[in-house]
Every structure is written in structure tokens, then in C-alpha cells.
Amino acid sequence: MFDLERELDAVRTRLSANGIRYALCGGLAVGVYGFVRATVDIDLLIQAEDEERVYEAVSDLDYSIKARPMNFDNGATRIRRISKVDPTDGEVLMLDLLLLAPEYQHVWDTRRELQWNGRELWVVSPQGLIALKKSRSSAIDLADIEKLEKIR
Hints:
By secondary structure, the chain is an alpha+beta fold. The chain starts with a helix and ends with a helix. The strands form two sheets. Strands 1, 2, 3, 4, 5 and 6 form a six-stranded mixed sheet that branches. A two-stranded antiparallel ribbon has the order 7-8. It is built from six helices and eight strands, in the order H-E-H-E-H-E-E-E-E-H-E-E-H-H. The longest helix is centred in the N-terminal third of the chain and has 14 residues, at 4-17.
């Protein structure tokens, strides 16, 4: 079974070592702001031009299964998923890369560098998370928005 915290730390370390800028988003980012909830993947906002570099950086962490590209909102939301399988139990862990689009430049510009486990972690701001979650507006996104609006 995967330890999401350990996996996030490993991914963050590989991206930093390769000079790749990122911002944690999704459920783990909501957790960083104090609202812990269940999640099964790692979501990162990245510059579109860094996509291939991210694949290379995490390949030695066994992220090697690429899904088909996912595009939503007339191309404003482009997700690239790369996964790995735990050899002991077959569990799959997904690393979802949200490619930065011009519509979300303000989300990138307001990302924050926080200290997490004694090292830096770049995280989308609460306002940025709200903007990303409004584009999807699933039930869990709406619940997250309600929580995040308390800390704006």
C-alpha cells in the first residue's frame, strides 16, 4: 500500500532536483491547509513545457504508465496522468499533472512556498484551489470550496 506523504516527498524531491517548478493542488493541497480528507492521487500544477521533463524526473520512482490525455473546459483544463503499481499488492497510485493554461495563470502566480516536513513545498493558494475546483464543481470540490473560503 502506498504512503501518499512519502510518495509526495519523493516526487517533490525529484522535481526540485531537476529544477522543475510545480504547485501541489487537489486533495493533498486541501490537506496542507488543514482540511484533511481522503484522496487517492497526487495532483500537481505544472508549466505545460515541463511535461516531458516531469516524466523523466519521476521515471526512477516507477511512474511509467501513461494514460490518454484528458482535456476539459474546451482545452482550458488539460490533465496528464502517469501511474505506478505497487508490486506487493497491485495498488495503483496516480500522479495527475494539470498543465497550466492561460486561464489559470493567476493560480500559478499566487502559489505559495510552504515548509512541509522540514523542506519547501510549493502549493496552490487557497484562492487558486477555489478557482480550480470551481471549474469542476463535483460534490467533493464544492465541499472543499466551502472549507477553503474560511481561510481566504
